[in-house]
Amino acid sequence: MSDKTYGFETLSVHAGAAPDPATGARALPIYQTTAYVFEDADQAAALFNLQTVGFIYSRLTNPTNAALEARLATLEGGRGCTVASSGHAAQVLALFPLMAPGAEIVASSRLYGGSLQQMRNTYPKFGWAAKIVDADDPENFKRAVTPNTKAFFIESLANPGGVISDIEAIARIAEAAGVPLLVDNTLATPWLCKPIDYGATLIVHSTTKFLSGTGTSMGGAVVDSGKFDWAKSGKFPSLAGPEPAYHGLNFFESFGDMAYTFHSHAVGLRDLGPSQAPFNAWLTMLGIETLGLRMERHCANAQKVAEYLAKHPAVAWVNYAGLPDNKYHQLARKYLPKGAGSIFTFGVKGGYDVGIKVVDSVELFSHLANIGDAKSLIIHPASTTHRQLSDEQRVAAGAGPDVLRLSIGIETVDDIIADLEQALEKATKK
Ligand SMILES: *Cc1c(COP(=O)(O)O)cnc(C)c1O
């Protein structure tokens, strides 16, 4: 199937999943197997030497996972993909081939809270340092570069503040610094934004969210654009130097634009081990078939809910890039022309007490810590996800006492609005 000639929705249904050649099964089979029988000793040796492609052991590769990898690579406009057990596992896997003790990442200060935890508290234990910068001014990335910088890390649409990064400007600075730009595209999904078109090198996803789409399956992915020259700067010896685990094989010399993806299976998944379960890959494939339909509805509903809340007397502010007075509205029009996503925050007058009364009063919304489900979700970050922080840290993270985060689902929009209406009324009743 030639990918170039089909539209996004067609590829969402077909890419990576032809009828099963052995049985004719039209749906993708779940290859629930740990290992694969070798043809003979020579083929086994060639597989272990990476001289031929095939399946050895499902920690490294699995045919159901391979179908998801092909679909995600196609939808993002990339060359290869590696799926992982969660979004966070994918982030570690994505950085692993680039980093070494003493190496530095420059990352946006407005990342998903869990990603900032990784950067600030866990990566230093590997000897990796993260410089956290305000991404609203792309020049901050340039100022943070040192000879040890190996990667830039941003989110296309950041969770939860609705912050949109100027991907093209930051990609230009990354290119000048000789480092890859990693973009977490979880909240936008490739239906809203394809960061590789703007110069991103690597895309990471929590497929747990919109891609699987129904809150059933943890998963993550790394998509490689295949466009980065890993040999040029001498900064990436794991990819463009001799690999001791494979008799000194040089991945970039041997595999060219597939070097990064082969390395992340043959070394990353093999040695770190965060493989995705084939059943989760299968559910995510099923989810992606309706990605375009769902995102269209998610965005349309979120736009109407944001407009409704912006006029509500009990609401102090609404932070949604789809509203014309939002700080990121112009960037949204450039990078997310089909809609500003379905996750946003708003502030209630009356602060903390009113905030927790709203989450206790909703009926249709689910009060929980997830996003990107077909169901509408709500959380009060100050009393939950951001509880461990100080008041000042909470405000800096966009999680002050009055903040509520919504992930708008695909239900009938009037029902979503009616639920917020009754919850706000109960919460503000004297
Ligand atoms: C949820 C999320 C992650 C982490 O993904 P998990 O699948 O929960 O490990 C990373 N980045 C963003 C933007 C997220 O929303």
Automatic annotation (TrEMBL):
GO terms for cellular component: cytoplasm. Belongs to the trans-sulfuration enzymes family. Its cofactor is pyridoxal 5'-phosphate. The keyword Ribosomal protein does not apply. This is O-acetylhomoserine aminocarboxypropyltransferase. Pfam families: Cys_Met_Meta_PP. InterPro entries: Cys/Met-Metab_PyrdxlP-dep_enz (IPR000277), OAc-hSer/O-AcSer_sulfhydrylase (IPR006235), PyrdxlP-dep_Trfase (IPR015424), PyrdxlP-dep_Trfase_major (IPR015421), PyrdxlP-dep_Trfase_small (IPR015422). GO terms for biological process: cysteine biosynthetic process from serine; L-homocysteine biosynthetic process; transsulfuration. One of its GO terms (molecular function) is pyridoxal phosphate binding. SUPFAM superfamilies: PLP-dependent transferases (SSF53383). Keywords: Pyridoxal phosphate, Transferase. The keyword Cytoplasm does not apply. Gene3D superfamilies: Aspartate Aminotransferase, domain 1, Type I PLP-dependent aspartate aminotransferase-like (Major domain). It comes from the Bacteria. The modification N6-(pyridoxal phosphate)lysine is found at K209. Signal peptide: none annotated.
